[in-house]
């Protein structure tokens, strides 16, 4: 017997993937059915699983009020946080005293994590075909910011199994 994808109705998908039929219907809303079973719309399991994953990502990205922030709102937050992070990196590079640089970085270094979280949130609600590129961009920006902060503060990262790098390691 060959392994060929089969079409399933909403009821069949609910049985196959173990999710509520109403949740599957919400996730598939707006998607063109892959075909028909009898007179009912039908989808392949892969289509349903992809739709459910996207549905779940959007649900997890919701704010406290249960609303997904608009793209414009999220973009404004990303831009503001990126500008604040750039200002922090500029301030660190202009500060001559290493201890003051480290104190500033310790106090405001959360901006790297803030920007990372916002970019992850934006990626989670972006079109599926854009996510890989957005993840690459996020990793590049966050990695660059972390490297700049470590270098400016002359911190080193000590990895398990390697000798301690001294008091300047984290």
Overview of this protein structure:
The chain has helices spanning 10-17, 21-28, 45-60, 71-94, 98-108, 110-124, 131-152, and strands spanning 7-8, 35-37, 40-44. It starts with 6 loop residues before the first strand and ends in an 18-residue tail after the last helix. The chain contains 7 helices and 3 strands; from the N terminus they run βααββααααα. It has 2 domains: 7-60; 71-152, Methane Monooxygenase Hydroxylase, Chain G, domain 1, CATH 1.20.58. The chain has a 3-stranded antiparallel β-sheet. A hairpin with a 2-residue loop joins strand 2 (35-37) and strand 3. The protein is elongated and about 75 Å long.
Compile the SSE list and pairings.
Layout: E1 7-8, H1 10-17, H2 21-28, E2 35-37, E3 40-44, H3 45-60, H4 71-94, H5 98-108, H6 110-124, H7 131-152
Antiparallel strand pairs: 1-3, 2-3
Biggest beta sheet attributes: 3 strands, antiparallel
Domain count, please report it. 2
Q: How many helices does DSSP assign?
A: 7
What is the CATH architecture assignment of the largest domain? Up-down Bundle
**Into which percentage range does the β-strand content fall?**
5-15%
At the third CATH level, what is the topology name of the largest domain? Methane Monooxygenase Hydroxylase, Chain G, domain 1
- Work out the radius of gyration: 23 Å
CATH class of the largest domain: Mainly Alpha
Query: Quick check: average pLDDT?
Result: 85
Please tally the β strands and state the result: 3
Helix content: 55-70%
N-to-C series of helices and strands: EHHEEHHHHH
State the end-to-end distance: 58 Å
- Class computed from helices, strands and strand pairing: mainly alpha
- The oligomeric status of these chains comes to single chain
Poorly predicted sequence stretches spanning 5 or more consecutive residues: none
């Amino acid at each position: 017997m060959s392994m060929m994808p089969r079409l399933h109705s909403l009821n069949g998908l609910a049985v196959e993937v173990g999710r509520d039929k109403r949740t599957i219907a919400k996730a598939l809303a707006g998607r063109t059915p892959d075909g028909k079973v009898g007179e009912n719309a039908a989808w392949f399991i892969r289509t349903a699983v992809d739709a459910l994953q996207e549905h779940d990502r959007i649900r997890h990205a919701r704010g406290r009020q249960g609303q997904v922030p608009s793209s414009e709102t999220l973009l404004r937050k990303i831009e503001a946080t990126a500008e604040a992070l750039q200002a922090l990196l500029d301030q660190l590079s202009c500060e001559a005293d290493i201890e003051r640089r480290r104190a500033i970085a310790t106090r405001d270094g959360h901006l790297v994590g803030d920007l990372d979280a916002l970019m992850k949130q934006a990626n989670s609600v972006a079109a599926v075909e854009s996510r890989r590129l957005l993840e690459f961009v996020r990793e590049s920006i966050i990695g660059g910011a972390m490297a700049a902060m470590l270098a400016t503060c002359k911190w080193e990262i000590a990895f398990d199994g390697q000798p301690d790098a001294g008091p300047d390691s984290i």
